Request: fold
Amino acid sequence: MKTYQSMNRQELAEAKSELMKRYQKYKDMDLALNIARGNPSTQQLDMIMPMMDMINSGTDCRDMYGTDARNYGALLGLREAREYFGALLGTTVEETIVVGASSINFMYDCLARAMLKGVLGSEKPWGKYDKIKFICPVPGYDRHFGMCEFFGIDMIQVLTDEEGPDMDTIRKYVESDPTVKGMWCIPKFSNPLGITYSDRVVKELAALKPAAKDFRIFWDNSYMVHAIYEDVPLLNILDECKKAGNPDMVYMFGSTSKITMAGSGIGFFGASKANVDFTESQVKYETISWDKMNMLRHVRFLKSQGGVPNVMKKHAEILRPKFDAVFDTLSKELEGKGAGTWTKPKGGYFITFIANDGTATRINELVKACGVTMTGPGATHPYHNDPDDRYLRIAPSFPPVEELIPAMEVFAVCAQIATIEQLESRI
Amino acid sequence: MKTYQSMNRQELAEAKSELMKRYQKYKDMDLALNIARGNPSTQQLDMIMPMMDMINSGTDCRDMYGTDARNYGALLGLREAREYFGALLGTTVEETIVVGASSINFMYDCLARAMLKGVLGSEKPWGKYDKIKFICPVPGYDRHFGMCEFFGIDMIQVLTDEEGPDMDTIRKYVESDPTVKGMWCIPKFSNPLGITYSDRVVKELAALKPAAKDFRIFWDNSYMVHAIYEDVPLLNILDECKKAGNPDMVYMFGSTSKITMAGSGIGFFGASKANVDFTESQVKYETISWDKMNMLRHVRFLKSQGGVPNVMKKHAEILRPKFDAVFDTLSKELEGKGAGTWTKPKGGYFITFIANDGTATRINELVKACGVTMTGPGATHPYHNDPDDRYLRIAPSFPPVEELIPAMEVFAVCAQIATIEQLESRI
Reply:
């Protein structure tokens, strides 16, 4: 196999001509394929439907501690749910709040409260500074960056490798600048790279000596139990923060959006008891209680299934052939051609394609014109600006394998065309 | 019957001695009664349990427009739910957002976004002013006042009579002061007075000419369908605002917390399409979607019951004997004695006791020492400060009648003791 980079003008022209024929063939098929959204598939959702049988008209609606889930009260969540989801996060009941259907919503809410009122230990609300900054590992999750943009928080991009974000850069900013107030992390099977932070990275994060006394790590552990091929251990950051004398430095978030149902799952929050108490003193102004019936439904279902790991095994069985299809198609089509590389995550929801610099936007244009929708280029970066124009996120969870394969074939053809176009323009 | 005010020292002493005997008798009973919380009763919640049968493991989870309620998406709510709850509010689909389990949470959220980013037409975020102010009709709802206090919003108290808040005072402030940015209203079966705004008040509110271009009425219509004895019509404020040329001046809120289940109901928001569009442009940063499964469950249940009015009739049948018990006990014990008066609402969740000035705190002390818990004095006013110390809110919904009667007897005895104590201290 010869890389496109090693071809001469004639060879490139011939290769492109062949690729354009394939491209046209796909175009004529009037495809309407979507690899944009990290949505669970119908098959996954169907598997969760027995959760709807956990509470019916004849059911007692009290948790094991006797709280009636149907009425007001229990601001921090049903105790049984706080225990159950705390165990997932690695926090005690007192360190856990169980909230509404979306952990992203609670992240936003924590950030909004910090802007309006500050966090435990703040000298003043974050919104009262001329400017505050967040560390944003890239590539990362567009919703994290969107919140910062919405609140006018400056984003400091820090590159991520297989171990996690670059700690030297992080230390430099966090330990010198008191306006660096926070940091986003997706520490396990990260969106979009699929990497898991190494023990060294977690320990170094926990041992940071922030210039801001009210610095907070927003630890979005959305994919904590989402192994597809193999689990990868992750240290408990709260434990590490305690050991390092920084017990209040981290806010942990998790949800069942990709364990049970996306959009009608359960979100949860873990932090030091001092942070939980402080958060309670603020959230008491914003709600009477979150949906405890859904908490009860969830805990009963997950227990009935023998626990979260059993449910996740079934998800993995559904997702594995889809990830395989992407890897296989990309390998078959692109291996050794110099038209881009891709990640091979062991879990999570995404595969990241790393295109040749300056070609991601063009690949997306070509793919789109051929009826395949994917997350736009730049979504992985603050302000939708990927400076090297090379990251494209592939979400294989929703479409069936028979749609994924043609979608990835189209994608691979487009990656090659974009590569050749760029090479030709440089000759 | 002689009022305490017309008694001499000797008569007061005798009356007090009799009352103290009764008080001691109740005290010896070791009562543990609670008339503090506006919680639906177990009987009401039981009646809603068939809602849990609307979705089971074999159920199709698409709404009538084909959206799968189990997955991400539909940021503004399932279309079928927007239609259904919009009809309750008197808004079109495009004027309606269906949100999570709590309308209070969405009120907070709307206020938080206004503070952080402003509303449609704001020159700058409300939080960027040195000080902003809200009109707060009193007596009112402690959670509204708590939010203002949390955000540092100054509260302008405006007295409420049977027609609603005093419009002359409101006009004076709203039309002259551009830092008056908003106003709380509970327009129907209000908390705690139980009054409903007259057509005149609604029309005058809608016709306000606020000095602030971004003034918003927070129209918390929590009890819109909560007639117990008789319905009282309320004008649609959005319609009136449109007629008056102020289409964007009102945010309407409602929920099913006291239609289905408190804490696991559905909240909804109604406003002009321009406000809804603007709100969408902000809330897209805070969540992917709210719990659509609960929306679907609700709409199917309410339709299966032949609509909300049928459900509310059943609630009224449960609540009526409880309200009757309070009215009867208060009449029997207090009528004509000069120890306080009380409201006689036609619906809602509360009865307000208006004690003799300066005695509410003492009544609460006495009642508490006798094992009866009620909402503390001052809860009906900003900063928990009822300047005349006279409003006490009675919540009859939760306890059974056989507990309500002794609780109200204790209350009546205490109201009389406090009255006599005050008279004695003035002789």
